[in-house]
Design goal:
292 residues; alpha/beta; 2 domains; seven-stranded mixed beta sheet; binds S-adenosylmethionine
């Protein structure tokens, strides 16, 4: 019996922490022009995608992150018509966004075409509905360059990036957030993948600290995602409208019903509202960031 291959999650190596996954079968492995990409089968988490040693998506728990990064900003906004996704190569975010039939356009700006191409083969549950939807537009470009130059305006911007390393680092800068504000429509909102505060508090503190001078509302909300290890994951929140994240569950429920009450497995109107009720240590990180 050949020795089983174990693949390490190396995102927290600087903390002296590694987590390894037993590989049942490697489905695809490539050093792309931008990053190391490996997709493998895991007996508990299903298909797992890693980029530069950081878990990106697993078929077992992807629904949590994808539902919370999409339905929260879109239903909080209430009148979104144009959505921008920065990153999102596996198309899991786009698949959830497109469930909102009132949307007119969904633009995804992904730097690495390889991620999309292999997702078409290995994540058809995401890519098939996305690429047959006429509202969807795929742009292969650096998200930084796109938001700095596009003449389009977006009601919701979803930054489904990797972590602040490699090509993803630029998506955690003041310049990027200022450019997102530039192409955000009045009353718009941006949400960002902002890591696990228990393991990487500086990522959240840094982003919210940069949101503060740029947006009327700088905050975050949380969700528990098993394979983003270390407790709650934080999603950054930056909006031109301070009221968006304060709607009661009955308002969100009414909007969800109007949107067709599509099936979800994690998000509910109550979970939507509760997600902004932060554990004290995370709320203190956000307060500290806003005092900077
Ligand atoms: N859900 C995952 C997570 O929470 O970490 C992220 C999903 S997706 C795989 C992240 C995508 O961001 C990758 O496909 C990567 O190629 C893309 N990306 C990284 N840097 C980028 C940049 N500067 N512009 C556009 N896309 C970028």
């Amino acid at each position: 019996m050949p020795e089983k291959r174990w693949l390490p999650e190396t995102l927290f190596e600087d903390l002296g922490f590694r987590m390894t996954y037993a590989v049942e079968k490697v489905l695809y492995e490539q050093q792309t022009a931008h990053q190391h990409l490996v997709l493998f089968e895991h007996k508990h988490f299903g298909k797992m995608l890693m980029l530069d040693g950081a878990t990106q998506v697993t078929t077992r728990d992807e629904f949590i992150y994808h539902e919370m990064m999409t339905h929260v900003p879109i239903l909080a906004h209430g009148k979104a018509r144009n959505v921008l996704i920065v990153g999102g190569g596996d198309c899991g975010i786009a698949e959830e966004v497109l469930k909102h039939k009132a949307l007119k356009s969904v633009v995804q700006v992904e730097i690495d075409a390889s991620v999309i191409e292999f997702s078409k083969e290995h994540f058809p549950e995401f890519t098939k509905p996305v690429f047959r939807d006429k509202r969807f537009e795929s742009v292969i470009a650096d998200g930084m360059k796109y938001v700095a130059t596009t003449s389009r305006r977006f009601d919701v911007i979803i930054v489904d990036s990797t972590d602040p390393q490699g090509p993803g680092a630029v998506l955690f800068t003041k310049e990027f957030y200022a450019a997102c504000k530039r192409c955000m429509a009045p009353g718009g909102v941006m949400v960002t993948q902002n890591g696990v505060p228990f393991m990487q508090p500086d990522e959240l503190i840094s982003s919210v600290g940069m949101f503060k001078p740029l947006f009327a509302d700088a905050a975050c909300y949380v969700a528990a995602i098993p394979t983003y290890v270390g407790g709650h994951m934080a999603m950054g929140w930056a909006s031109k409208d301070q009221t968006l994240r304060r709607h009661p569950a009955r308002t969100i429920a009414a909007r969800y019903q109007k949107a067709g009450s599509f099936r979800t497995k994690y998000w509910t109107p109550e979970v939507h509202v509760a997600a902004f009720a932060l554990p004290r240590f995370i709320a203190e990180h956000v307060q500290r960031a806003k005092k900077k």
